[in-house]
Design brief:
Strand content: under 5%
CATH class of one domain: Mainly Alpha
Strand order of the largest sheet: 1-3-2
CATH superfamily of one domain: Tetratricopeptide repeat domain
CATH architecture of one domain: Alpha Horseshoe
Order of helices and strands: HEHHEEHHHHHHHHHHHHHHHHHHHHHH
Shape: globular
Number of strands: 3
């Protein structure tokens, strides 16, 4: 892929050409192209939203925007290759007079090029990791490397970098802020989430103690508080960072996510809409707006917005999940299953995809397959409690009460531990409500669900449909709770209308 793009620097290479020339006669999954582009960006530390190497041209293809230098591989005078050429009577012209060799793409040449590219990328990664030996400097100078930390590989590289940076520059606020962000993202995929969230908070506080006005430290404090579930503090720090950098799209989006999680959905949607308006080529902007519209109950507008994200970044995971949600709510199980299965081809570690496929199996009466999916999801992400709750419901309906009760107790322990740590989000309270509903304790389930609503739970459309809450969905108190905050959702009607017109 890199070689093909480098052969035409600055030119748009169509998706069709890339598929034809990279894979030739081999059939690949539809997301293979986007996946390889993503891997290439990870390898060179590029960012799709602000690229330095590979630029996405929506609906057309990709182009290499970095400078390309052709390296002369002709025999050097005095080398064995040069002597062999001279012995054969060949004339070796000076380097500046020799024509650039044709870049024919034969199968043997392709294999050699692939080996060369692999070696080059490994060398590039080695060079990036060697930067750990450099003393950290201020982020304001633009010297901090731009890691693609939203992937596990990228985050591990960043974690190593900042760990060494802290050792070599213990007075650097930027180093501690970078390490805090790496801890935050580690909590998303490693066991013992509380441990990593706590380490993130410690590092962020250390960064702020070194330099209270350092914007990176303020952002790190916001991210660490958000990962710990302390949404009010997170929002306050994000607002402080925006006071210094009002046009920072990432901070604006993160503030929107914190507000949405705490129930301030209309304000969050306004921030997501401003992100799209400021950067209409941002897949993330459309994706977050789509997710917010889905929670607010605007399914059609959410689907339109998610599709806009997919035009910019095919197989954008969260946008696809929004569309799968809309399919499920509309009882289009075949469409949802096809979409989720295809998404797993691109993202094999997509735990929500596995859980929703298990839910589809459950709805279709394929209990054995559903059980296997839920157990797989629990292995993939132990902190993804939804899989535990759905498995418990399945076990209870199958008459396996002891196993169901053990699973419910496990989910409740996790939720109660999160609340004890100061987690303000609605999710642990929602988990407790669901556990009571699965047991059939409607009174307790309604009381706990009320607490989840007070903490910011606003997803009425999903909760009225989700089989996990089937025991309480007809209860007048449950219906009244939803009616109370659906009025808030109507405040987003203007944003939904503008989104549809856009």
């Amino acid at each position: 892929m890199l070689l093909l793009l480098a052969e035409r620097p600055g030119a748009v290479v169509s998706q069709k050409d890339l598929l034809r020339q990279v894979w030739r006669d081999t059939h690949v999954a539809p997301g293979a192209l986007a996946r390889v582009i993503s891997l290439l960006r990870q390898a060179v530390g590029d960012d799709a939203r602000s690229p330095s190497y590979v630029e996405t041209i929506p609906k057309r293809g990709y182009r290499l925007i970095a400078a390309v230098e052709w390296i002369d591989t002709a025999p050097v005078a005095g080398s064995s290759d040069a002597r062999d050429a001279q012995d054969a009577g060949a004339d070796v012209a000076p380097a500046h007079e020799r024509p650039r060799p044709e870049r024919g793409w034969t199968r043997s040449a392709g294999a050699a090029a692939a080996i060369a590219i692999a070696a080059a990328l490994l060398l590039l990664l080695a060079i990036r990791q060697r930067t750990n030996d450099l003393p950290p400097r201020s982020m304001a100078q633009g010297s901090t490397p731009a890691f693609r930390q939203d992937t596990r590989v990228g985050n591990e590289i960043a974690f190593d970098y900042y760990t060494h940076a802290v050792e070599r520059g213990p007075a650097s606020a930027d180093a501690y802020a970078g390490l805090a962000k790496a801890y935050v993202l580690r909590a998303n995929y490693l066991p013992d989430r509380a441990r990593w969230a706590g380490a993130a908070l410690d590092s962020a506080r250390h960064a702020a103690a070194i330099d209270p006005d350092n914007v990176s430290a303020v952002r790190a404090l916001a991210m660490a508080h958000a990962q710990s579930g302390r949404l009010r503090e997170a929002a306050a720090y994000y607002r402080r960072a925006l006071d210094v950098c009002p046009h920072d799209a990432a901070t604006r989006t993160n503030l929107g996510l914190a507000l949405a999680a705490s129930g301030h959905l209309a304000e969050a949607l306004a921030l997501f809409e401003s992100h799209v308006a400021a950067d209409p080529d941002s897949p993330a902007g459309y994706t977050h707006l789509a997710g917010g519209l889905a929670v607010a109950g605007y399914a059609a507008e959410a689907a339109l917005t998610a599709r806009a994200a997919l035009v910019l970044e095919p197989y954008q995971r969260d946008a696809e999940l929004v569309l799968a949600r809309v399919d499920l709510l509309d009882s289009r199980l075949d469409d949802a299953e096809t979409r989720l299965s295809r998404l797993i081809d691109v993202y094999p570690d997509c735990t929500p995809c596995v859980v929703q496929l298990g839910l589809i199996d459950q709805l279709r009466g394929r209990e054995d397959q559903a059980e296997a999916r839920y157990r797989q999801a629990r292995v993939m992400s132990p902190q993804f409690v939804s899989a535990t709750l759905r498995l418990a419901q399945l076990m209870r309906r199958a008459g396996r009460s002891a196993e169901a009760e053990s699973l419910l107790e496990d989910a409740e322990r996790q939720a109660q531990a999160a609340i004890a740590r100061g987690d303000e989000t609605p999710f642990p309270r929602w988990q407790l409500a669901v556990a009571a509903a699965v047991r059939g304790d409607r009174t307790r389930a309604i009381a706990l669900y009320d607490r989840a609503v007070a903490a910011g739970r606003r997803d009425a459309t999903w909760d009225r449909w989700d089989p996990l809450l089937s025991a309480v969905q007809a209860d007048p108190s449950f219906i009244a709770l939803h009616a109370a905050f659906e009025r808030e959702h109507r405040a987003a009607a203007a944003i939904a209308g503008r989104t549809a017109r856009r």
